[in-house]
# Entry
Amino acid sequence: MKNKILYIFSLIAILSLGSCGDFDDINLDPNNPSQADTRFLFVRAMQGTTFSVFSSAPAPSVSLYDPFSQLYPQYFAEALNIQYSQFQIVDFSLGVYYNTFLRNLKLIIAMNQDEDQKSTEFVGAMGSNDNQIAVAKTLEAFYYMHMTDVLGSIYYSEALLGDEGNFTPKFDTQEAIYTALEEKLNEAYGLFDESDRLNSQYDILYNGNISKWKKLNASLRMLMAIKLSDVAPEVGKARFSKAYQEGGLQTNEDNLRYKYLNETANMNPLHENMSISKRQDFAPSKTIVDVLLSYKDPRVLSYGVPSPQNNFDAVPFGVPRNEISNYTGKIVMFNPKLYAMNAPITIISASRMLLVAAEAAVRGWISADAATLYKDGITMSFEEKDFESDVEGYKANDPDLWESWETDYGFILTVDDYLAQPEVALTGSNVEKIEKIAMQRWLNGFMEDGLEAWSDWRRLNVPTLTPGQAAPSTITHVPYRRQYYLIDYETNMDNYRQAISAQGADNFDTRLWWDVADN
# Structure
């Protein structure tokens, strides 16, 4: 019941950008609500963080539509109807991110800075002013970082100024946005006060824990800094070193997670696709399943369940439409624990951050032991994926099957033994070490922040990915970016043309500012 009440209030925030402290109070003008409430604004703003995993319309929508953040890194492949892996959906709309999530966060900051509002119950009930501002700015950076990593130049410095009469904002370059976000995150970090908490009922990501918000803040700075390794390494090194010293996500208790509910209005989108509509459009891609098997990696048991033939044959990414029926009923499908109605998703994990730090250590950006960070990152992933429960289930329910798998696949169940494999051990040149680190980030990132996995591929070409046979001949590589959505620029054509002139053509071939390596 508590969850239902919370969700109802979050919907009120969506519709009115405000809420009443009492049901007897009514906003007389729905277009100019008299009492916004930062608690409900925060709930809605936090719901949108799921887009970096499923890249579909964020909660409360539960549609799994064009999950390109899982398709581009080839975590998912289409198992039913080949459409997305033909790369015919080219654009990406920013409307909901600006008009809902970022608008809410801007209003939260304004309310906490306004002398007439910041001490009212509609603000104070969420927590201290400084902590609310710090969390809101951290979330702003989360959205803007991902948005610019999808498109490149976007609205930033003049975004959300319609109330001031600016309906044609300029497109800021990605370089300028990264610089501004670094400043914003550092400002936010300085405002955090761990002696206070946010209201745990309405902080649906970290339950009010300011220490964890600080770790996320530092982690976002590290994620941006590492992407500068080719385009601006000295800048990246300075930014990364500072953020690393302040401390990012270290354990699975720090992970940025979104907790879905046992309610149809806010359930895991994969549950709707797999269990309710029973479309079952997607399955683990052969690309990742085969790499896991080649490494004798037990995480394959957490990601998928064997085919009806009790093997781990998987559907290739981009199978031609007329061949998909050859795989029906013969492939690995998602592990049911991943698509329970209330199955949580990890958005940014400690494993990813430790492995990012391992890359920074190899590059000489931080004074830390890369091998230790590498091992710790894999350890965090092994623990978080919880393959042990799957192993115990197979052993108990069908010991003969498990014995045959031990012979056929030789799954390695401990980190030390896993690391002892030459293809996994952190040995070789620095280039080879970074490739191994990037591979482990990719293997860990299944059904996590796929936009980060896509960014890793764009920057490091790990793993090697090809478009698949279903793609038209004009698509010669996995896209480097998405294209602008018509409605996002059709009334701002002059600024759009200036942005494209500076950035390059508006297509899949145009690289982002930090993406300068060949792949």
